[in-house]
Amino acid sequence: MDQLDHQYIAALVKRAQQNDSNAFAELYTLTYQKQYAFARHYLKDEQLAQDAVQETYILALKNLAKLKDPIVFVAWLNQIAFRTCFDLAEKNKRN
């Protein structure tokens, strides 16, 4: 699926916000490849990219209830991924 169906994703978000773990699993399936590709490009390290994606989805799951407009889920997830990658890159620079 190259183009994401934002209406369908919004419906999944609403279900996930009601503790439907299958809906969150489907959100993950639909968005994982793009998130991993971004993290791999940004971090230029496969292991760090995997860590970043894992942290991105953990944060998304923890904060999903705070997302007021489900239609912006992908943009919201992208922001989480960017911040996570930025933080990991900064941490790696210091080490």
General description of the model:
- The protein has 95 residues and is mostly helical.
- The chain has helices at 6-17, 21-43, 46-63, 73-94.
- The chain is elongated, with a radius of gyration of 13 Å.
- The mean pLDDT is 95.
Give the helix level as a range of percent. Answer: over 70%
Radius of gyration: 13 Å
The helix/strand series, from N terminus to C terminus, equals HHHH
Cα(first) to Cα(last) distance is 38 Å
Features:
95 residues; mainly alpha; 79% helix
Produce the secondary structure layout.
Elements: H1 6-17, H2 21-43, H3 46-63, H4 73-94
Helix pairs in contact: 1-2, 2-3, 2-4, 3-4
Q: How would you sum up this structure in a few lines?
A:
With 95 residues, this protein is mostly helical.
